[in-house]
């Protein structure tokens, strides 16, 4: 009796897997492969009432049926919109913004050519060098990448390379291993839900020393348009076309990145910010965002201009704006507490009281 109930339950699960395959946009030969796996499991249940690899089959079919084999987002590629988004999110950096707008212009021209002549599709923007932002911590590398994705109307996914200890983290592990997993690339595509997201390869210089050679080898394949058109994750074991993905890479420096990988990248140096630039960024970009995130309004908190040099450099020189963001966040939290506890309606930060609101390190 229990055997029959177990078998019927597993047949119900097989039916659900069958539905996933039917509703998905799988390539035809992969669909046949998945169908064969289901048929083999069904025969095993029918004659033996058990199938030791059922969980593996179910997990595999779940993965392949949710991947965006055909789904893609519509690119905007309106240079005026892109410029307004870059200006809205980033102060200064005019040379860097010009490089990005030039890059997007080339992408648009190539896509228009591809629409006119489908045979030129393989010569589209994916063959352009990959943007590679190099700079110190806090100089805006990640936020620039997010702005590019926003300007293009694409999903944005970040893959952190800091401490990555194996190339299998990127490429996945074969299903013959008991705890095999898909790689970070396939996971990123699943999260994006499209086959043309912006994927940020973050901190390429911080991979583990013992795995650097293998990881750089996978990166060469990822960033080469001749190879990434048929990228194979060991777990999925079927080629996935990554040619429509816009890869952007970042690093603090290029010392630990192989020459072959650098050859496929277009390095763009992220400049450090001067105190004057930080003052403008703090007043016009960071402060309004932190006010909103802490529930404060401009009527409840204001900072006089002469105080900003103290806020910008509380401890000494810092190349990026991370310390500035933390300082402003700390000021706003202290003000929020005083407004709640002391029932104060408004606080003005002046040279006389600024030190009581600055965070202590």
UniProtKB/TrEMBL annotation:
SMART domains: AAA
GO molecular function, one term: ATP binding
AAA+ ATPase domain segment(s): 127-275
Pfam families in the cross-refs: AAA, Lon_lid
Signal sequence annotation: none
Residues passing through the membrane, by range: none
Database matches in InterPro entries: AAA+_ATPase, ATPase_AAA_core, Lon_lid, Lon_Prtase, P-loop_NTPase
Protein's UniProt name: AAA+ ATPase domain-containing protein
Source organism (scientific name): Candidatus Gottesmanbacteria bacterium RBG_16_37_8
GO annotation terms (biological process): chaperone-mediated protein complex assembly; mitochondrion organization; protein quality control for misfolded or incompletely synthesized proteins
């Amino acid at each position: 009796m229990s055997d029959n109930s177990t078998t019927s339950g597993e047949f119900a699960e097989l039916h659900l897997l069958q539905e996933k395959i039917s509703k998905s946009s799988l390539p035809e030969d992969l669909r046949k492969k998945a169908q064969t796996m289901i048929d083999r499991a069904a025969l095993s249940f029918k004659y033996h009432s058990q199938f030791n690899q059922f969980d593996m089959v179910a997990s595999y079919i779940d993965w392949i049926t949710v991947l965006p084999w055909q789904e893609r987002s519509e690119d905007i590629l309106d240079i005026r919109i892109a410029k307004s988004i870059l200006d809205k999110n980033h102060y200064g950096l005019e040379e860097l913004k010009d490089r990005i707008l030039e890059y997007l212009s080339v992408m648009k021209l190539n896509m228009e050519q591809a629409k006119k002549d489908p045979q030129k599709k393989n010569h589209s923007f994916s063959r352009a060098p990959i943007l590679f932002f190099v700079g110190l911590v806090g100089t805006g590398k990640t936020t620039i990448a997010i702005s590019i994705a926003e300007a293009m109307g694409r999903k944005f996914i970040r893959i952190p390379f800091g401490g990555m200890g194996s190339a299998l983290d990127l490429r996945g592990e074969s299903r013959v291993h008991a705890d095999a997993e898909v790689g970070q690339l396939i996971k990123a595509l699943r999260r994006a839900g499209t086959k043309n997201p912006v994927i940020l390869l973050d901190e390429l210089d911080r991979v583990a020393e013992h795995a650097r050679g293998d990881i750089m080898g996978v990166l060469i394949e990822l960033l080469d348009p001749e190879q990434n058109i048929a990228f194979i994750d060991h777990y999925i074991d079927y080629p996935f076309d990554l040619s429509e993905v816009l890869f952007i890479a970042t690093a603090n420096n290029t010392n630990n990145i192989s020459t072959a990988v650098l050859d496929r990248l277009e390095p763009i140096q992220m400049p450090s910010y001067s105190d004057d630039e930080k003052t403008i960024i703090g007043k016009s970009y960071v402060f309004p965002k932190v006010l909103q995130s802490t529930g404060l309004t401009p009527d409840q908190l204001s900072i006089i201009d002469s105080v900003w040099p103290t806020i910008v450099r509380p401890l000494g020189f810092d190349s990026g704006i991370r310390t500035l963001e933390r300082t402003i966040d700390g000021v706003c939290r202290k003000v929020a507490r005083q407004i709640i506890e002391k029932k104060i309606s408004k606080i003005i930060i002046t040279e006389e009281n600024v030190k009581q609101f600055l965070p202590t390190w």
